[in-house]
Amino acid sequence: MIDFIEEDxxxxxxxxxxHPWKILIAxxxxxxxxxxxxxxxxxxxxxxxxxxxxxxxxxxxxxxxxRNPDIALILLDVVMETVxxxxxxxxxxxxxxxLPNLRIVLRTGQPGYAPEQHVSETFAIDGYTTKSKxxxxxxxxxxxxxxxxxxxxxxxxx
Length: 158
Prior knowledge:
Blueprint: H1 9-12, E1 21-26, H2 30-40, E2 44-45, E3 48-55, H3 58-67, E4 71-77, H4 85-96, E5 103-108, H5 116-122, E6 127-130, H6 136-148
Parallel strand pairs: 1-3, 1-4, 4-5, 5-6
Antiparallel strand pairs: 2-3
Helix pairs in contact: 3-4
C-alpha cells in the first residue's frame, strides 16, 4: 500500500519573488501624486507590484534618478519649475545620464506647451498623455504597454 502525502497549494505553485516596479512620479502638483496612488493602488503590472517614489520638481527627480538606478519608469510632468522643465529632464536622462532603458511617460496638463507630435518626434520618450484625458484604465494600459518593453521584465526575453 502506498500513502501519498498531500502537498499544499504553495508547494505546487511556488510564488515568484518578483521585486516591484519602481515608478517615479515627478510632478509639482501633490494632487497628481495622490490621484496616481489612488488609481494604481493594488495594481500589478506583468505580475509585479508597484513601488512609488515622489519628486515635486525636475531638479528633485534628477537627484532621485541618480540615487535609484533601478527605477523602471518615470511619470513626468512637462511643466514644473519652468514650462519645459520636464522636457529638459528628458534630455538630461537620455544624453547626460545615458539612461536609454529608463522608460519615460510624459504627462501634461497644458498640451499647448508640449504638443504630442513635436515632443514624440524630438524627445526619446515612451509615452505621452494629457492629464485631462487620463483615466485609471488608460494609466494602467500605458504602464502595461511601456513596461512590457522593459529590459527589467523577467517574463519578456531581452
